[in-house]
Write a structure and sequence with these properties.
elongated, alpha+beta, single chain, 8-stranded mixed sheet, 591 residues, 28% strand
Length: 591
Amino acid sequence: MKKAIYAFMLIIGFSTTVKAQEKTFTHADTLRGTITPERAWWDVLRYDIWVKPDYGTKTIEGRVKIVFKILMGKETPHVSAYPKMQIDLQAPLIIDSIKHIDTYKASVLRSLERDGQDSLANEYKKQFYYKLDFNNEGNAHIVSYSNKFGVDVPYSDSITIYYHGTPREAVRPPWDGGWIWKRDSLGRPWMSVACQGLGASVWYPCKDHQSDEPDNGASLSIVAPDTLVAVGNGRLTSKTPNNDGTTTWKWEVANPINNYNIIPYIGKYVNWTDTYNGEKGKLDLSYWVLDYNEARAKPQFEQAKNMLKAFEYWYGPYPFYEDGYKLVEAPHLGMEHQSAVAYGNKFQNGYLGRDLSRSGWGLKWDFIIVHESGHEWFANSITSKDLADMWIHEGITNYSETLFTDYWYGKQAGNEYNYGIRKNIRNDKPIIAHYGVNEEGSGDMYYKGGNMMHLIRHSIDDDSVFRQIMRGLNKTFYHETVTTQQIENYISKHSGIDFSKVFDQYLRTTQIPVLEYYFSADNKTFFYHFANCVPGFNLRIMLHDSTNTYKLPATETWKSISVQETAGAAVLPPLIDKNYYVILKQVTAAK
């Protein structure tokens, strides 16, 4: 998704030392990245978003209804002490008003609407809804929520936020995101949004923290000119002409969804559909591209079925059968927008026609279809609670490229692809960033994260076990937000191997273990030990050639194994190098 982040990081000059990574965080960073008291007492159940962009002025107007559950229990502070809500919306967008209706009056309105008394319901709405006061703390808006907490507190409630303004324009989407105002090759407006990391509050008001997804899904209503088509996540539920030259397209998802994944696409789209017979039955496939790209896109998008077949094998069922699978041509390279994956790879294999592994295997398949769709399992179904743990999204999804290659072209091909992408690792800073301040770690979360998963798989040395672990993660944490500790613990528990120090080594330091080794004079004994590693580093190395199996238990002290006189010296070092991300250093003897 963000491969070019590497060049960007080089430009802004990240230091290669851990000490130089220390930085000062602001109160705004804390408000953005922490579950503040004003966030802790309520849990989002649903977003209903309505947005009307104006291409000519690069402005939007909109409203968002947030349905939420009030948390009353040990897991939150006593909510009566916090009659405030934090709503996030990034400048220069402006909140016009926030309206609320109490639970009893809301039930009256629902009753009238069920009875078909719409005119009376609309009249009562004017009387029942009232404005809530709020104060701004930068991009955080602290709302004086009016319900009094007590024994009669409603289990759920809602507020509606009205807003307008000029959203931050994307500079270099998807890496430097915001609202995207472009024209297609025929000069027609083409609009969308990319906002991972930057946050969904760059274009709509929300509780902008990855740990809280809307449990009951979301709807997105997009007002677009009649000459264009508006596409959103999930399924199209209505298309309503407004008799003013615009049409409202309403899309809905039934499943929980990350805030940054709710995205509008507006352009001169055409659509075709297909189905895939997957592990949970018939999965609806839907493809949306600019009209003049349909002929090129149709054969290229057939690769989606190969992707689904491989990933359902390794990971389990596609996580969003209820919402379908969709590829949407986007005015940027690509993003993992749930059930509406953004595609901008110009209908060619590789990464814009290049093989990021330089092994040849990366040109056998379309990088964006494989990588961004892999995020449906890791990022969208399983989501990190804190942005600092984004390796769960990017490291494991990077490894999905290896697993895809392995599935279709064999294990050796997968090994070669994974070894090839290792060359892109920079070791500038740790993969896991600071918690509670909305900070991403090193871009090494991609390639280094993928190589870490590869060495864990080889260390387990049983693909049936590894596959069950990957499928088990998707079953255990289905549609949940998680911490890195949960993922680490699950892999260790279900592999029967304590990988905690391996995770520490590769996620929390920039040190790459050095495997120092030498052979006895007769080449019948291989001596080795690990250096430059965290205390207790315990990576077990398992190797296979055509006739032999070699097991190297982890050790910081010198150990040895017996090898065949000729085969060992020739085979062991290249086998280790290809499948384990360690530095090999041949020495003359133990020091």
